[in-house]
Design goal:
Growth Hormone, Chain: A, globular
């Protein structure tokens, strides 16, 4: 398969792993939809929580109102790190499901929160949800498409996620203006969390085998080039955050988007 696929199964291996966008389009599209629900979870609070802070909790201080953003960002950064490490150890699908389990209670907490501390706690759970689920959908798409379409996989993932952020913010703002700040806008969150969890449990398939298949293909090339060294986690962290300027810039840009 030229252009969109990087590997094909032999005729005598009907169940062999195949890399490429066309070969895995159904799972790829499913992951795009799942990531849209991940983005929707963030978007539904963007228009409502600042108003909720002022009108229902009486928070006039911008610092207090933005505390939930700080908590979200810090927790999401740690969850991103954990997602990458654990997805190689216990599998991508398990991390995706765990992320949705953390995200499920968020809309309920926001609907029922008697104090602002509940909102901050809900945002901590949302940060875990975003860090685990968003990162994992990126990893799984890259697994499926192989080395030739990684840029396209990333682009589609980010377009789906951030498009859902904006649409969910618009929808939640409309519901808040039409009905009330609570609970109507957060019904969307319940729908997003339930749909994301069910799709992840019932239909998403583990993609780690695709990454292992690609690694086996690349091993002879690496050996012929005299590169057998497997970088440690510390090496990767140093390379992507400081040593390589391009990777450092990408890391900072991606982390700043949410």
């Amino acid at each position: 398969m030229s252009g969109v696929g990087s590997s094909a199964a032999r005729p005598d291996e009907p169940n062999a792993v195949r890399l490429g966008l066309l070969a895995n389009w159904q799972q790829f599209l499913l992951l795009v939809v799942v990531n849209a629900f991940v983005g929707g979870m963030v978007g539904l609070e963007r228009a409502v929580l600042p108003l909720l802070a002022e009108q229902e909790f009486g928070l006039a201080s911008r610092t207090a109102i933005l505390a939930f953003i700080v908590s979200f960002g810090a927790v999401k950064a740690l969850a991103n790190l954990v997602a990458g490490r654990l997805s190689d150890r216990i599998g991508r699908k398990q991390i995706l499901v765990i992320g949705w389990l953390f995200g499920g209670p968020v809309p309920l907490l926001l609907m029922l929160a008697p104090t602002w501390e509940w909102v901050v706690f809900a945002n901590v759970l949302l940060g875990i949800n975003q860090g685990l689920c968003w990162s994992t959908t990126v990893i799984m798409k890259i697994d499926l498409v192989g080395p030739l379409r990684r840029g396209l996989a990333m682009g589609l993932n980010e377009a789906a996620g951030y498009g859902a952020v904006s649409l969910a913010a618009l929808a939640s703002g409309y519901l808040a203006a039409t009905y009330a700040l609570r609970p109507q806008p957060f019904y969307l969150g319940l729908a997003f969390a339930l749909a994301g969890l069910l799709l992840s449990v019932l239909f998403v398939r583990e993609s780690q085998g695709h990454a292992q298949h690609e690694a086996r293909q690349a091993a002879p090339v690496a050996a012929s080039n005299g590169s057998r060294h497997q970088p440690s986690f510390r090496d990767v962290l140093w390379l992507t955050t400081w040593k390589d300027r391009a990777l450092s810039a990408v890391s900072q840009g991606c982390d700043s988007l949410l």
